[in-house]
Amino acid sequence: MISFESDYIAGAHPKVLERLAETNMEPLLGYGDDKYCQMAEEKIRQACSCPDAKVHFLVGGTQTNQVVISSVLDDYEGVIAATSGHISIHEGGAIEFTGHKVIALEATNGKLNAADIDNYITTFYADGNHDHIVFPGMVYISHPTEYGTLYSKDELTAISNVCRKHNVPLYMDGARLGYGLASRQTDVTMPDIARLCDIFYIGGTKVGALCGEAVVFTHNNAPKHFITKMKQRGALLAKGRLLGIQFNTLFTDDLYMEISRHAIAMAEKLKSMLKEKGYRFYLESPTNQQFIILENEQMSKLVQNVCFSFWEKYDDSHTIVRFATSWSTTEEDLKELEKCL
Amino acid sequence: MISFESDYIAGAHPKVLERLAETNMEPLLGYGDDKYCQMAEEKIRQACSCPDAKVHFLVGGTQTNQVVISSVLDDYEGVIAATSGHISIHEGGAIEFTGHKVIALEATNGKLNAADIDNYITTFYADGNHDHIVFPGMVYISHPTEYGTLYSKDELTAISNVCRKHNVPLYMDGARLGYGLASRQTDVTMPDIARLCDIFYIGGTKVGALCGEAVVFTHNNAPKHFITKMKQRGALLAKGRLLGIQFNTLFTDDLYMEISRHAIAMAEKLKSMLKEKGYRFYLESPTNQQFIILENEQMSKLVQNVCFSFWEKYDDSHTIVRFATSWSTTEEDLKELEKCL
Amino acid sequence: MISFESDYIAGAHPKVLERLAETNMEPLLGYGDDKYCQMAEEKIRQACSCPDAKVHFLVGGTQTNQVVISSVLDDYEGVIAATSGHISIHEGGAIEFTGHKVIALEATNGKLNAADIDNYITTFYADGNHDHIVFPGMVYISHPTEYGTLYSKDELTAISNVCRKHNVPLYMDGARLGYGLASRQTDVTMPDIARLCDIFYIGGTKVGALCGEAVVFTHNNAPKHFITKMKQRGALLAKGRLLGIQFNTLFTDDLYMEISRHAIAMAEKLKSMLKEKGYRFYLESPTNQQFIILENEQMSKLVQNVCFSFWEKYDDSHTIVRFATSWSTTEEDLKELEKCL
Amino acid sequence: MISFESDYIAGAHPKVLERLAETNMEPLLGYGDDKYCQMAEEKIRQACSCPDAKVHFLVGGTQTNQVVISSVLDDYEGVIAATSGHISIHEGGAIEFTGHKVIALEATNGKLNAADIDNYITTFYADGNHDHIVFPGMVYISHPTEYGTLYSKDELTAISNVCRKHNVPLYMDGARLGYGLASRQTDVTMPDIARLCDIFYIGGTKVGALCGEAVVFTHNNAPKHFITKMKQRGALLAKGRLLGIQFNTLFTDDLYMEISRHAIAMAEKLKSMLKEKGYRFYLESPTNQQFIILENEQMSKLVQNVCFSFWEKYDDSHTIVRFATSWSTTEEDLKELEKCL
Fold this sequence. Notes:
Chain A is an alpha/beta fold. The first copy, chain A, has two domains: 2-8 and 255-340, Alpha-Beta Complex (Aspartate Aminotransferase, domain 1), CATH 3.90.1150.10; 15-250, Type I PLP-dependent aspartate aminotransferase-like (Major domain) (Aspartate Aminotransferase, domain 2), CATH 3.40.640. In chain A, 40% of the residues lie in helices and 19% in strands. Chain A has helices at 14-22, 35-48, 61-72, 86-89, 94-97, 114-126, 153-166, 177-181, 190-196, 226-232, 241-250, 255-276, 296-302, 331-340; strands at 2-3, 54-58, 77-82, 102-105, 135-142, 170-173, 199-203, 213-217, 280-281, 289-295, 306-307, 309-315, 318-324. In chain A, strand 9 and strand 10 form a beta hairpin. The longest helix of chain A is centred in the last third of the chain and has 22 residues, at 255-276. Chains in contact: A-B, A-C, A-D, B-C, B-D, C-D. The interface between B and C is medium-sized, with 16 and 16 residues.
């Protein structure tokens, strides 16, 4: 059975495991206070061209969104997100669990629009009763989005400008950031992101790590006593080394981008293959997730040999499904898939 | 520099790393829905002689306490714990963060007393105004305690009986459970714990794993939709395999107990060494944590060559410090230490 | 300046004040444990034809929604509501503050549709990933709605049936319940509501009281230890008499309905007056709130002599405004208004 | 049956009811935005000699403590209080419900000691692991305390100095403030309190109002968007007039102090009477609450004719009970009581 179900079906990139093994018996301090966390932080600062950045390491994506958003917002504030945003639907209400509303705005192919954000915030402050309404206290975007799409540099700049105009921090969920940066159709770099966002995270779980996400506060804007806030949310890992060593490895010798480019190369081949075979795409995705529309019968057959994700119902006789490549996808996998299609 | 600072200074037991490497490229489902999690669950059930148990894997200790306690308690309930309990002081208010009071009772050497618990609950219900007071909804104990001490089977049975009498679940924090079970001075077995507690967790982070704790609900008493509750608390690991493979390895061929016995053997040697050298013990600990009282001057010298933990001030000229052994402590470490003492 | 701004611009109905004065020096127990609360509860049970109902008194509407919803939902559940529902927008995120998502469905003129609710819940359970999504744990409707509209008995029955089919409680926000029941265009009675809803509240603040709402749990379904849950949410009034005496008065000699009918009579006159003068209605409301569309210039003039509420922008040159009558509206007020129109 | 059970057994002072009746039909804006709230605020500022103070009106004591404490604290902070403090035990966990720990310090006769607070905070910051512990973010005292006792000006000054030294706000729960200020054994005035505390509240519920507490932020230190925070906690009263009119009346012509002095005069007589009859006092209280120790048999008899509060068990054969006077206690009541004693 060949698997294109998600980008977290395998363990870690072999170099990551190697480094974990090599450093295994070194006695190190806990809670992120070890040299590998420090080295990883420094390398990430350099990759971002952001010498003032403060980097914290967390275990998973939902945890990271929850910890960051609830630590930054004041009680009376909520977070603006796309209706299709991960925090809006697929995190079990983790943001609301911490007391904050997700203010969902309509999005196109997973992307928020700067003008819509501007309009929402402007209308909010113009409303004489806004004291009775949740304040917009942050803008959340995912890049790549949940549909694999990407913001262009212009779009990202426009959103950033709106956020700064209204003094609302911009936070980017980069669970698949590597696959966005490695896309052949992007003009956005890591330093662009660090410059345009106030906070973002670099996904490890889906890009070569066993677990782990690196949160970047780009300009001395980490919340006061963030370590305690992490602890209090059950998110401070005792053996911080597990995260530090992994990110230090991923940010050594360009490994993070190298494996991301591999995933994109595999995705491009997958895309061509699907196009050649006449499959119908739900949308044009420039990254590692590809969404196609299958007839339900066709789907029932395919699912016997290939693992993919059911995304949503398209109509009564069709379903949208997702194929994902990752750092672990091989040419072999693609050949196997080709036989099944 | 020789390190006895804590029981989480090293990575994972080499066999655990090996298994992670061997299984690394197997495509597996996420979120704990993989065969290794299932195998680990089954082995833990057997180790507990508890065929009905439901086992869930979480990443760390504070997270586990937070997720379990807040998932089991109703809004109007708090959790009884020792004033020295980990949840009472050293988890940054993680229980209160979820809306619940920690009802702290005085303890002796880290241990709660069955009669004190009984008295507290009885007095609570006898108070005509108890509708204005937080209800006692759970009893939390740690075993070994934060002071390395252990409950005897009689003591644990007495606490369990009080809990059942009042219909309040008993939850055991087993962050260092292996070191408790392997102690030469215990009459408590894993099946005893499964029989006497309603919920307990088997610590991995401090006993051979990179991370991970296995929560055991002993009698079909896992909260409804616990997976969603984990997700909502940011505690559902995407690559559940990381936890499943580790616990499956630790519970294969008695590895968990074997490495725990090793830590205890090291602790016994450490204890003899300290006693021979005339060091003064703060209390008698039968497990891997040893607490001694140092003169402050003596401490200042020792700290130059040995890492240990400052515990608390004893008096103006003395300090209580902790030495911890673990699965990773070697005879070499002890020899090095002997030179420094 | 004549005031049609809202239905809470005056104090209490004079009979309510009288009874507060008459009973003022009687020594009574606190926290709702007094005879007036008991008498009020009994009269409400009779008005509902619901002898098993349990009635609790709370101070205000947002508080009532917050206390009821957060007390009934389990952690993993959210509440379905119209996008225009009071809890969705105008309560400052009070539901999310307690950890729960408001699942907003599109509504027509403030009303949810049974089929939409059914479809949402059915789709939810059909989604293989629903463990990662907030569970629908309650349906919230307001009656009258925020737009003054009413559910017909058929519509309410349909919603009730959907809720029971899915085992999800139906909760009605009756902040203006009297004005709904007294409408000339309704076929819904208080016993209908008690029969079709699982929980509802009878608004006092907007219908003759200084403050106060009466929550009715219709079939022994009040959450366990609801008093403690109220206390814990800061919502248990020390002098419960203040609520008991008011509701006891409002439910004596049909006062609640009598004053509600008066408000509706005033609203009907207002409506005729506005229609005659050629004002354009935003929608047809059968209750005490009337929404009209004003040209912005016209609005600027009118606002100099009459208080009304700005509701929302209609287009660049028009605004929707609200006129509300209440138990305190007089014929005089209407005459004054007529002069200004 | 004569009642000394609590200081909230009667309605409101007659002048308060009168003013509610007189102003009843005036159309007023909601949510505290009316002239009576403004007038009350101004009068309270004057009574406090604190022209910069910001005053907000809330409905009840637990609500006030919850709203103030949770609005002022950052996530990682808890509030220091006496173990006998109202928030520590008798508010159903309302503080923890909002995510914050109550850090309970031992107290004497209900009073915290400045040196104990200083020591706690100093020790906290000296602990190398304090990032894993809840930060002390506020000090809560009640005045009078739950035992009727009072801080002297020196004691209050000492606590205030400790708080300012550590930059931790001092918050006073003044549920019975009038009875403290009117005591014959106090040297503390309202301006002293406003000068020494950062926040305090003036209790209305127990001192002449139907409901209501006035929170005073003494130096432009009200939390940002406090109105929204109140709304979000279900604590913003729609008809704010109910609170504004009551406090405006209580702070006109010294009514608040006049009725407080009456309660104290009644308490002094009660005290003399009890002393003459040979009753044993649990402690010396200079305010309206008197605690005496009764033999259980004696208590069983007395309870047939007099309402008082059971406080706590003293020993197996004795119980501590409380008699409370208030603005509504009459000479008649005392005469009746004398007959029963």
